[in-house]
Write a structure and sequence with these properties.
Keywords: Antiviral defense, RNA-binding. This protein is an alpha+beta fold. It contains seven helices and 14 strands. A hairpin with a 2-residue loop joins strand 10 and strand 11.
Length: 239
């Protein structure tokens, strides 16, 4: 849907971005996911303002958007205020985080304990690789970002375990026309890293498969007054 809305394959394929699932009142039925609310919301983030404008324009250009059996119509759009980034930031997952994907022959469905060093190390490697690939940082800057740690919320994990619920699930991903599977994690956590790293994660998504809708983050208790998003105006690219 987003690629069709963008209407520029080169821009879409080269953009760094991620997005949330379609949020609304839902219920799982025999034929799939059923929406009971009149309004649904999707959240998109990218550091590329041209890309965001193209998506927004495309969605409002269509009178109706068919997504599966769901008929949608663009109604309104808002821009999120960008937070002040520091060396310690707490995050919530709007979409699951995939810490690694087909890296060094590892099984991307394997469970990795989020309190382990392996979990943090995988996300560090993923983030540094993506930051380097973006071309926005020098080798000296990348080397300076060595301080990095992911600290999951232990109280949340203990509560989830007591309730016998899951924070890690296997998700299907369509990549290059093939259906693959990857394990995604949904939990609150803190990241200790340089402000530049925090900003990259916030605008580009965290972990792997971000262009497939994984790794979308939000900041808890950060609720500034929202303002309308005007296409072409110089404001944040996060919606």
């Amino acid at each position: 849907m987003l690629k069709i809305a963008c209407a520029d394959n080169d821009l879409f394929d080269n953009a760094n971005f991620t997005f949330s699932g379609l949020k609304g009142q839902t219920k799982v039925g025999r034929e799939g996911l059923h929406y009971f609310s009149k309004k649904a919301t999707i959240v998109l983030t990218s550091p590329n303002k041209e890309f965001v404008d193209s998506i927004v324009n495309g969605l409002f250009r269509e009178s109706h958007i068919l997504l599966g059996n769901l008929m949608l119509q663009a109604d309104s759009v808002e821009v999120e205020e960008v937070p002040q980034f520091s060396e310690s930031m707490k995050y919530l997952c709007i979409s699951p985080i995939v810490p690694f994907h087909d890296i060094q022959g590892l099984n991307n469905k394997m469970f990795v304990n989020p309190v382990s060093d392996d979990f943090s190390d995988m996300l560090y490697d993923s983030t540094m690789f993506r930051m380097e690939s973006s071309g926005l940082y020098t080798q000296e800057q990348i080397a300076s970002f060595f301080r990095f740690q992911v600290i999951p919320d232990q109280d949340y994990l203990a509560r989830i375990n007591r309730m016998d619920k899951k924070f890690a699930r296997i998700y299907s991903v369509i990549k290059n026309g093939e259906i693959k599977e990857a394990r995604g994690y949904t939990l609150p956590f803190e990241i200790l890293a340089a402000p530049e790293v925090q900003e990259f994660i916030y605008h580009n998504g965290f972990g792997e498969l971000t262009a497939h809708g994984f790794g979308m983050l939000d900041i808890p208790y950060f609720n500034p007054d929202k303002k309308p998003y005007i296409v072409g105006e110089e404001n944040s690219s996060s919606e």
